Amino acid sequence: MSDAAEQSLGGVALLGDMKPAERATLEQQCAFRRYMAGEQIFDRQSDSRDLFCVVRGTVRVVVYSVSGREVSFEDIAAGGSFAELACLDSRPRSASVVAVTNTVVAAISPPVMERVLLEHPKISLALMRRLTRMIRQATDRIVDLSTLGANNRVYAELLRLAKPNPKDAGKTSVIRPVPIHGDIAARVSTTRETVARVLSDLGKKHLVIKEGASLIINDIKRLRDMVEQFRID
Questions:
Q1: How many CB atoms lie within 10 A of CB 221?
Q2: pTM of this prediction?
Q3: Coil, strand, or helix at residue 31?
Q4: pLDDT at 98 over 80
Q5: Residue 232: per-residue pLDDT
C-alpha cells in the first residue's frame, strides 16, 4: 500500500456519505498512525478520547481479567472504526485494542468528530446503527455466558462467524479464514483445548469440514438447533 493510500479515509464505511473534498479536509485533521502486529493501540481505562478508523490491517477489541486472561469482543478489519464510546461520552476506555496485523489507523479527535456528526446526519445514523449492533452483540454474549455450557458457546460463536457459502449458492455456510482456537476461546470464555475438542467432535459428525483456508458448516440448521435447545425462552 502506498503512503498516499495509508493517508486516505476513502475505504472507511462510517464516512461513506462524505464527498471527496470533505473527506480530504478531514484527512488533514487526522493523525495517521502505524502499529506492528501485537502492539497495543490503547489500554482499557486510558484517558484518550479519539475515534479511530482502520485504514489497513486488523485490530482486536479485548479486556483482560485480573489473572491476565483475555476476553475478546471483536476483530475490526480495514474500513471499520472503533473507540466510539469514549469519543462520545468523554469517559475512560471500556476495553483495550491491539493490532492483530501490521495496521494503519486514523485518529479523529472528539471536536472534529462532533462537527462531522452534526454536519452529516447520515454518518450520525450510521454510527447509531453500529452502536446498536454492539449492544445486540453484547446482549447475545451475556445470554450465552449465562445460559450455555462451554461446548454450546463454541457452537454459538461458529454461528456468528458463519456466512453463506458462495461456492454452492448458500447451501452450506463458511467461515474464512479458519478461526484460530485461541481466538474462539477468548470470545466465549473457555480454553483452547475445549475449542479443539468441540471442532473435532463436529468434524466426526460431518457437521464441519476444513477446506483449505475455510471451515465449511454442512448443516447450519442442525448446529443452530443444538444451541437453541439450551437457551432460555
A1: 9
A2: 0.78
A3: strand
A4: yes
A5: 52
